[in-house]
Amino acid sequence: MKLLEWQDKFSVGVPEVDHEHRELIRLINSLHESLAQPQSAERIRSALGEIHAGISAHFALEEKNMQSWRYPDYADHKRDHESLLDELGDLMDASEHEAPVDPHAFGAKLNAWFETHFQTHDARLHSYLEKTRAVDQVRNET
Amino acid sequence: MSRLRKGVRALFERTENGIERVFGPSWNPMRQLGALGWLLFWIITASGLYLYIFFDTGIDQAYQSVQALTHEQWWAGGIMRSVHRYASDALVVVALVHLVREIAFDRFHGPQWFAWITGLLVLGFVYVCGITGYWMVWDQLAQYVAVTTSEWLDRVPVFAKPIARNFLADEYLSGRFFTLMAYVHIAAPLLMLLFMWIHIARYAEARVTTARGLAWTAVGALLSVSLLRPAVSQAPADLDRVPTEIGLDWFYLPLYPLLDRWGGTTVWFIVLAVGIVVALLPWIRGTKPAPVAVIHLDNCNGCGRCVDDCPFGAITLVPRSDGAPFAQQAEVNSDRCVSCGICVGACPTATPFRQASALTPGIELPDESLMRLRDEVTTRAATLAGQQRVLVFACRHGAPVADSASLCAIDVPCVGMVPPPFLDFVLARKLAEGVMLAGCRECDCYHRLGDRWSEERIAATRDPRLRERVARERVGVSWAGLKQIAARSADVEKFQTGLFPGSHARRGRLNAWRRVPERSAPWWRILGQIVVYAFAGVALAYCSVAPHHQTLGPDQAVISLSFSHAGRLKQPCKPLSPDEMARLPPNMRRPRNCPRERWPIEVELFVNAERVYAGTHSPAGLWDDGPSTVYERFRVPAGPKTLTVKLRNSGRQEGFDFMRTAAIVLEPNQNLVIDFRAEAGGFSVR
């Protein structure tokens, strides 16, 4: 079973951001699958590494875009990114040193922060973009 | 050549070690020579504007107005004038040291040619400003500068009449000339400012302001020198006399004694040859440059962090070219990239935790791949032993780090190339108990911003940030110049012995890794600065007027033979017959044909029956139809003389058209002018 499913409501309406979101969901699902298999410590580590690279790059791009859009909640959103990256680091630390990871707890953790982030910060960004786009449209028409 | 360069660099490094001890890293003038130049430029501009209010143009007015502002308002105009002079002298020193230092540190090759060439242009303007400045005062130094400079310029065959003729005697000189000088003296700094701006245009975060404390102490030092040793004029100019002994400003006028000795043409060749060689230096190099950064599009989403961090403005974002659903991608301008790798440290995909995919970041140096860096980290770390193992990323341009059983140094082109996740990686994988960045001299990164970005990344104030939960007491930095070897090993040792063995958990505060900055300078430092400024002040005040330059022996005088006269036409006018006229094109038909070509002027000068000069001067103009010009100066012993001067302007084979003999007594230092005006009856001697 897939942990996360792409849903249209996740879309922020910017092709490159949505593309990376889909890509990240794919990575997380593949991690989840590898958790289900036995003898997978190395694979978990490797999958986490990919997620780390993917998420870092994605956040960097999203932050650049937010700044260029003058998104008012940038500071908040950015803080959430940093704490997500920190938590991911903690997960990586745990996968290095601790006893075999409990796949369910692990999956739940990932799921939780992704869902929350999508549903709060990204959704807020989405509505901001819609609003500014509408304003721009009105401006262009007049 | 490169050995000489290294020797000079070692000399700089050692000098700077001493200066840093006195000034501290952030005030160290040697690491902000460019910014110091800007400061001096503004000081000179401000004082110059004040002086301009009181400066009058005119042969006598120029000198008198400068005298008045120097002495009648010594407390304002006098100080301003002295500050204007000493800051200008300091500017030459700062610019030249800056130039030599960039050569010694090998920061003029490849992409840096741009700053090199524009910097040389700025230096040229500095000299134009300085020379015209001395010219405006119209004292004896100004007279000497005027005559010598214009004679030198006259060596270039672009001026129809010699400029030096303006300075034969007072009646040749126009008051308007000082208006022209004032104009040039204002226009040149404006152009200079333009080139200063272009000079730094390619650098991100170029420094144009010095540390505030340094600026204030430098201004204080300039004011002190100005009060203790005010800049004054020399005796007023007198074109009938040749200034014999002059206090020369050796910062601006070191070539002038050479002009006296070797003549203008030789000095032109020397200046041009040296100028061309210096200008071409960036393209002369022994070693091949390192290949520039490349983009791996598979790992680049166009986030622009490398663009933000590149100190050389070498990266831009351009529209996506590979069809991936991103708007932009990074692009490297190979003409600007110096291969420092700071962009690699900024790339979010440069995380060593990646294993499934190859560790290729979005931007990378071909010769310094991150994959190899990670391999080196893991293999070298595996050889470390003990409870306080330390892994150091050591910059190539700073003091070296010595390996030991529990410490290994990995060589990188700049500490800014190390992505923060690498520090995380070393600690998380327990490859070492501590990880350190060892860079160049504090506040003096070889690649400009590597130290600053690294510190900000570790302090989590700049992206990419070092993860908050990474124990900062296990992350160290050390800044030490090439020859600060003792300081480097002290830094490393202090960091290593301070490491708590065992737990890698975070214990201290986020900024625990930072050194506490000194609040106030100790007394010996203040004393040291006073000594340095006093030394600089004495050198400035002394070399701006001394040692004196002897232009003429005490019992010598000068005879100036100079005039401008058109020789006779070679052929007389000839009326054209109607036939001849008909053969000409209609627009060129004229009743008489007058060939324009003139005879050259032949002139001879005898002093006491001895011929001292004989010359033939061709007419000016493409058709040899202009006047011939003569400008010759002879040094002769003073005393009674019989002068005979002869001139031929008709191409005749024998005899002369004009001749004059005069018995005169040449006084010492006299400037005797022999002019020729056909309409006034021939030669005049006065």
Write the layout of secondary structure elements.
The complex is a heterodimer of chains A (142) and B (686).
Chain A: H1 15-36, H2 41-68, H3 74-97, H4 103-141
Helix pairs in contact in A: 1-2, 2-3, 3-4
Chain B: H1 2-23, H2 33-54, H3 59-71, H4 74-104, H5 113-136, H6 140-153, H7 176-200, H8 212-228, E1 245-247, H9 256-262, H10 264-280, E2 294-295, H11 305-309, E3 315-319, E4 328-332, H12 342-346, E5 363-364, H13 370-382, E6 390-395, E7 407-412, H14 420-428, E8 434-439, H15 450-458, E9 475-479, H16 485-497, H17 523-543, E10 548-550, E11 556-565, E12 574-575, H18 578-583, E13 592-593, E14 601-607, E15 610-617, E16 628-637, E17 639-648, E18 658-666, E19 671-677, E20 682-685
Parallel strand pairs in B: 6-7, 6-8, 8-9, 11-19
Antiparallel strand pairs in B: 1-10, 2-5, 3-4, 11-16, 12-13, 14-15, 14-17, 17-18, 19-20
Helix pairs in contact in B: 2-4, 4-5, 4-8, 5-6, 5-7, 8-17, 9-10
Walk me through the structure.
The complex is a heterodimer of chains A (142) and B (686). With 142 residues, chain A is mainly α. Chain A is 80% helix and 0% strand. In chain A, helix 1 (15-36) packs antiparallel against helix 2 and helix 2 runs antiparallel to helix 3 (74-97). The longest helix of chain A is centred in the C-terminal third of the chain and has 39 residues, at 103-141. Chain B is of the alpha+beta class. Chain B has helices at residues 2-23, 33-54, 59-71, 74-104, 113-136, 140-153, 176-200, 212-228, 256-262, 264-280, 305-309, 342-346, 370-382, 420-428, 450-458, 485-497, 523-543, 578-583, and strands at residues 245-247, 294-295, 315-319, 328-332, 363-364, 390-395, 407-412, 434-439, 475-479, 548-550, 556-565, 574-575, 592-593, 601-607, 610-617, 628-637, 639-648, 658-666, 671-677, 682-685. In chain B, a hairpin with an 8-residue loop joins strand 3 (315-319) and strand 4 (328-332). In chain B, helix 4 (74-104) runs antiparallel to helix 5 (113-136), helix 5 crosses helix 6 and helix 9 (256-262) crosses helix 10 (264-280). Chain A binds chain B through residues 15-16, 19-20, 45-50, 52-53, 56-61, 63-64, 82, 85-86, 89-90, 92-93, 96-97, and chain B through 299, 301-305, 324-327, 348-349, 351, 353-357, 362, 421, 424, 428-430, 460, 463-465, 467-470.
